[in-house]
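Anyone else keep sequences and structure tokens together like this?

Example one:
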Amino acid sequence: MKLTKIALTNFRSFKETQTIHLAPVTLLFGPNSVGKSSILMALAYVQQILAKGHCDPQKLDALGSKTIGGFRALVHGQDLKKNIKIKLDFEPGKTPFVHYGADVFDMSNHIQSSYLLMEDFGGSIDTGAVEFEIAWSQRYQKAFVKFYRVWINDAYIGCISSSEDQKNTAIQALNTLHPLLIPYNTDDWLESEYGEEDEREPLEADQYHTEFEYVLDSLNPSQFAKTTKADEEDEGLHVPSRIGPISVACRNGAIPYMGYPMLTNLNGQDIDDIEEHFNFLVIRQVLSQAFVLPLDKLLEYLEKSIQIGPLRLVPDNDYVPNPHPEQTDWVDGAAAWDLLYKNPDSNKEAARLLRETSNWFASPDKLDTGYEVMNQSIAEAAGLDSNSQFSELLNKRSIFFKELRSDILLSANQLGTGISQVLPIVVAANHDHIGLVSVEQPELHIHPRFQVQLADVFLSNRHKHSFLVETHSEHLILRLLRRIRETSEQELPLEYQRVNPNDVSVIYLDPSENGVKVKHIRIDEDGEFIDRWPQGFFAERREELM
């Protein structure tokens, strides 16, 4: 799974809806305090809502328990009358989108009468989007998810809404004409209900258009009402909703319980009527795949994603690694050291990660730092007998940097700060079990030569992870443009994969009176900017040279 867009409305410095298009490597530029970190914070906020149910959090766990000050500090202008909207577009990729309720298929062999035949919804998701609209209840003095909306394959699915007291939560709109909500045998059903197509009168808006509508309405205690239009005022959608509201058990407002089939008030949950019960199971499975499945997969992805902050740890000689590094340990880079500290002799993944990290640091065509990265015990490093009375101390493993010219072993705190600032980024890029890698100001404390090489770190691993980088580095973008140009001119070094403009998204955040404006700076195949850079591309350099 990967995210392809982030849209923010009334979130911190974002007032009017602004959409950030994500590529395998996305760079965020802009003045200080303009709102670059708000984009990273929005993802952490969604994770906090889905994992912990915190719509008014004082801290965000994914950011290392960073204090933020709750909903008031997150809503634009600290105006509690406004609603925050966060919309995330995604592509599932190779992520398995499971179905809920395998018992449907188990029971189908025992059903003699007709039943609803639906698409494999979960296996048919090519693209999707979810939107959370978070509001503040003045009456109850708390924040809650007022609306949760879903799109699948670029088409609107529906919306779950919550009342202010969170006691009335329901699917208030459902696009029953979405291709994945139309049964296999719709043509046969329409013919049996309304006659053959060439003799059939055009269906009225308040007639059943599919068997799915008919069955769902028959199971719904809240009966079919006049056709309404779903979210037209808020979303500009013209999707007729021909069903009554379906009550749903939710938490945090409009978020359905995650991890198992959706809990509704639909009839047919008892097995008294086998056909009705089977249709209930089919409907429940479809609704669960439409509304619960995207949340489960999104949370799974966000919990695997990491954010590396601007100030990273330099471990001393007494550093005690965490054998089970967590998401929050990446903020100061500690998790990267923890992974390298694992014994490569007994852990193949640790050995691979150490080898690839060392290769990036030592190779002349990469970072070329002049050091290899090594994981050794003190006994191994000093050539001592590890079976002495001090064996516990001597067998303690540490990370050393071997100077290639002299074979001298140095610890991290004996080197310049730049090495320790780059290492967490290199480790994260080469680690297999990560979703999105976010990095704040990777260029801090490092030489311009390292900055351009970091661009190659991102590009070389872009098929493994997506990278979202908040930066001020001119050198970083220049290397990305160079690789695109070299690809176009067939001059790219053999050790690098081809890079095209779609692999890179350059975004400039521009402050205005109506909140931050997002400007996408497009790149052509020659590695040149198509769109003008606001105020010129790093105009400060030109001004100083004039």
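And example two:
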Amino acid sequence: MRMMSPDYSVHVVWVVCISCVWLPHVVPCPPQCNSCAGDTANCIQAGLRDIPKHFPEEVHVLDFTGNQITELNRQSFQVLPNVQSLRIPNNGISRIPADSFENIPHLTMIDLSSNSLATIEDGAFRGLQEMSIITLTNNHLQRLGQPFEGLASLSSVYLGFNQLTEIEEDDFQTNTMVRMLDLSNNRISQIHPMAFKNLKRLRYLILSNNALTHTVELQFSSTMLQLVDFTKSQLKKVPTGMPYSVADFRLGNNMITEIGDADFTGMRNLRLLMLENNMIQNISYRAFKPLVNLKEMWVSNNRLFFVPQGLPKNLETLYLDNNQIYEIQSHLFLNHTKLRQVSFEMNKIQRVYAQSFRGLQNVEQINLQFNEIAEIPAGTFSDLPALTTLQLSYNSLVSVDHGAFPPQLNSLSMSNIVSPTVRVTGQFVSSLSSINTLDFMNSPGLVSSMLSALVQSGARLNNVVTLNLQYNEIQSLPEALKATFGGVQNLLLDGNPFHCDRSLIWLKQWMLEGRVTFFNSDELECATPLQLRGRKIKELPNGYFVEVVPETSVDRPDQQLPKAVNTPVVQVSRLSLKGEIVTGSEGESSRRRGGNPGGQVSSNTDTQTVQRLQQGPATVPVGSGTNPTARTNTQKARKKGRKRKGKKNRKNKNRKNRKGKKKRRNRGKRHNQRAIRRRKCSAQTDGTIKCCRVLKNGTLRCRSKRPKQKPGSKVAPTNTSS
């Protein structure tokens, strides 16, 4: 065996010793934390009460979210030169003394949100020259002081959801690099005019949800300010002094009553102005003159009676919903060629003129829902070459003139029109050549007139993809509808009381083709006749569809459904809906005479007919369509039904009256019985009965009466001597 030389052994020992000196000392992750993978020490919800010690040097992020740490000071942290981000939200920290983070000199972000912070001493963040973001939201701070003194790199400060009451002049005096300042959801009532003077790089100032009742003219040195948000701040006037660079100015949900001439002076770069949910009644004609670049304006939910004049010429979107506007004046938008969207929803507009929207060459959407418009005159929208969407639902329309709408219109909404009749012409319907979506839900009068005009004009609306006819009291539809809307994909017919006679077989066959959707939620069913109620039209055999009955129009004589080609339109009377048959005049006259000539209907015809209808899918007998007195008999039957109903109501009323009288009579009897029980009666020698009772004051009250004699009995003689 070869022996190693002494020199070789010494060399190996020296190598081992040098290796031990030069190898770095690896510090493990604190056992209280979850892990230290990557560059983050994960100590989330670890039940910690204090900050652990001895973190690995490669850790750059310390996360103590959701623990029980209640105190921070300069001894809380070891020297951590590599840590850049510190997160301690959702703990119980109530106070931060000065110099608490001096051992973490390279911090750039600190998150102390959702704690119980009530006090932050001046100089609490001293020495953090690289600090960029401080988050202190959802705490109990009432005053700031100067905790951010010396933080020259601070760019974002989040102080929302605290209890701050005032912003003083020197709160941000040394923080010239701040770009984002969030002071929302506090109790700020006063702001010093110079509070933001030194914030030369300020871009976003958020003061929403405060109590700024004493707002004065603010002064800014920033030429980069983009967003100023005063939403829900109890403002009574528009804050002034905004720099020209502001592009987004939000003043919604305040108590502003008027807009003056100088409220927006110098704001030539403004793009969005939000004034919704105020109490604005007056807007000066010159108020918007400085806003030469304004694109979008929200003035909804105010108290305006007129459309504001002097609107910016470059405006593209205008919302005037929920005001008190009652008309749209003519030639109001002549100089507003860039408007693309206008909304007047939920006003009190009664009239629109043929020149009301003249000049809106680029408008694409007009919303006039929830108003009181009765007429759409010719030319109202026809001169708008870019209009594609028009909303007229929830109005009181009675007429729509030919030439009111442009030919390129793509979507038309006229649902929930309450008028029983709406006058439309065939020219109006045929002008909708490019229409893609038609919404006529819950507008029976409009649908009846429109379908009649469609059939009469023979128009073809092949571009219609969606046609909404839900809840329109439709009993039948003309077969010409299929050819009129050749390209329809969604024909929504939910909530209509269909009468399943043979004139609807074509609709069933169309449904079986499977190319069109006919309902949104409820599959189409029969409402009448009685024996078919609830049966699905699509699954009903052809033999079950009853014969077509002649037109009687007892229920709705003013709204006639359009007649299909070569097929009588079904208009079932109230008697027919109950499964009864209206007999001819000869049978009626024979019953009046008491006779029953051969071939006439007997007095129990109705009962026999109902029994036959309940037995199976039999056809309904059809009365003579040429009988001149059929309508008279129907009217008599309806009158008889009204009399029967009135008689029934009178019976019910009399029954209630009798019941009430009986109750009152029984109440009186019970009272008399109780009174009798309280009396003490005794018979007298003269044949009378004396009854006495004690009153409340203690006196005795007596009454004598002679008992009634039974019929036929003799009256006892009185003692005259006594």
